[in-house]
Design brief:
Number of helices: 2
Distance between the termini: 81 Å
Mean pLDDT: 76
Strand order of the largest sheet: 6-7-8-9
Helix content: 10-25%
Radius of gyration: 26 Å
Largest sheet: 4 strands, antiparallel
Length: about 210
């Protein structure tokens, strides 16, 4: 009887230890990390039940910065030749936004999704969710469109006689905003006065 109880206790302890080890392995790291030995290799450990671990992240050193893309458990270099002046922002779980500085006041923007599709624009004024407001310098007009869509609509055209046509894009970026679904923009007139325009739901019915 004593021998049977001893064997039963040993079996229960073995099962408990196996379960504990299994739980530990399935709940370890979900983020990519550098291999400290080579300082270059990236590795990923993720939860066994994770569905979509798409993300973008950056690492910087004295030599510059590198932007990485992690998608479905794999990590790759997205851009390893970027200036110090940039920003990387998460729009949602499937979309990221990178802004590159190409000089003052020049900026270039790219949106990248989990399908590795890209949408580049150097005329971006303002963004809210998936709605982009852009400025056509040549035709002096503001347009609205959805990210990854080439279908845009004109929401405001400047009167070339009444408005100052030499105002740069960055001015409109700094003098515009969204208030819920209303896009608000301040336009400079030749008489140095400003006019505020409000466009409701600019990306609706494209």
């Amino acid at each position: 009887m004593i021998r049977i109880l001893t064997l039963l206790t040993f079996s229960l302890l073995t099962v408990a230890c196996t379960t504990a080890n299994s739980n530990t392995d399935s709940n370890t790291y979900s983020n990519g990390e550098f291999n400290t030995e080579s300082n270059t290799k990236l590795y990923i450990k993720s939860h066994a039940n994770s569905k979509n671990n798409f993300r973008m992240f950056d690492k910087c050193s004295d030599d510059g910065c590198v932007i990485y893309m992690q998608n479905q458990g794999k990590v790759s270099v997205y851009d390893d030749d970027i200036p110090r002046s940039y920003s990387l922002d998460k729009v949602n779980d499937k979309l990221y936004h990178i802004t590159y500085s190409c000089g003052s006041p020049c900026h270039n923007n790219v949106f990248i999704n989990d399908k590795q599709e890209e949408d580049w624009t150097d005329t971006l004024i303002k963004r809210q969710d998936n709605c982009l407001i852009e400025y056509d310098i040549k035709d002096k007009k503001f347009t609205a469109r959805q990210i990854f869509s080439k279908k845009a609509k004109t929401i405001l055209t400047l009167n070339k006689l009444a408005f100052e046509s030499s105002v740069p894009i960055w001015f409109y970026s700094e003098h515009s905003s969204f208030d819920n679904d209303v896009f608000r923009i301040e336009i400079t007139e030749k008489e140095d006065s400003n006019v505020v325009y409000k466009i409701k739901n600019p990306c609706g019915v494209l």
